[in-house]
Specification:
heterodimer, A: 111 residues, mainly beta, 4-stranded antiparallel β-sheet, 11 strands, 0% helix, globular, B: 110 residues, 5-stranded antiparallel β-sheet
């Protein structure tokens, strides 16, 4: 089983819908992150969390929200999806300042 | 100016060749540096950290030049399986904030 699991792997939905992407990890890491990747751009940080009670905005948090339900779970929500949120989304984890480990990604298409 | 810039390539090389490419970063306060590998439509995976004195991991050699603010990756004896996009990643505050380059694509042909 993967150490960092994202669900769903693929999702197609319509503009205005609420969507939740989920991430769970078995690595025991305290830090979790959500990124999006668009063609020709580097990964961009949406939100990050250092602990269950700690939530921080990244560089592109507008239109997104997150919930850290447990140390092992970090979900990303799009309250009202719009087409320019079509992207590849990655969850990542790390222990302290160590390199981050990524989940398999969620390919999200918003029509 | 982007925080991390990479030549997108692609670098097309034959098997057995050596290929090298650089990445520049804008923030002189950057603390740590990494190369990640990303296969098409897959997650990035850590290839290697980059240390101040330079370091090797098998056929891969990474160098850091703080004065000129760039890091490099050299791949010797290229294999078909080295075909991927290589992401340059810079940690500015040695904490959480990773800045990613858009990647350099390498294609190794038989």
């Amino acid at each position: 089983d993967a150490d960092v699991t994202q669900t769903p792997r693929n999702r197609i939905t319509k503009t205005g819908k609420r969507i939740m992407l989920e991430c769970s990890q078995t690595k025991g890491h305290d830090r979790m992150y959500w990124y999006r990747q668009d063609p020709g751009l580097g990964l961009r940080l949406i939100y990050y969390s250092f602990d269950v009670k700690d939530i921080n905005k990244g560089e592109i948090s507008d239109g997104y929200s997150v919930s850290r339900q447990a140390q092992a779970k970090f979900s990303l929500s799009l309250e009202s999806a719009i087409p320019n949120q079509t992207a590849l989304y990655f969850c990542a984890t790390s222990a302290g300042g160590q390199p981050q480990h990524f989940g398999d990604g969620t390919r999200l298409s918003i029509l | 100016r982007k925080e991390v810039e990479q030549d997108p390539g692609p670098f097309n090389v034959p098997e057995g060749a050596t290929v090298a490419f650089n990445c520049t970063y804008s923030n002189s306060a950057s603390q740590s540096f990494f190369w990640y590998r990303q296969d098409c439509r897959k997650e990035p995976k850590l290839l290697m950290s980059v240390y101040s004195s330079g370091n090797e991991d098998g056929r891969f050699t990474a160098q850091l030049n703080r004065a000129s603010q760039y890091i490099s990756l050299l791949i010797r004896d290229s294999k078909l399986s080295d075909s991927a996009t290589y992401l340059c990643v810079v940690n500015i505050y040695n904490d959480y904030k990773l800045s990613f380059g858009a990647g350099t694509t390498v294609t190794v042909r038989a």
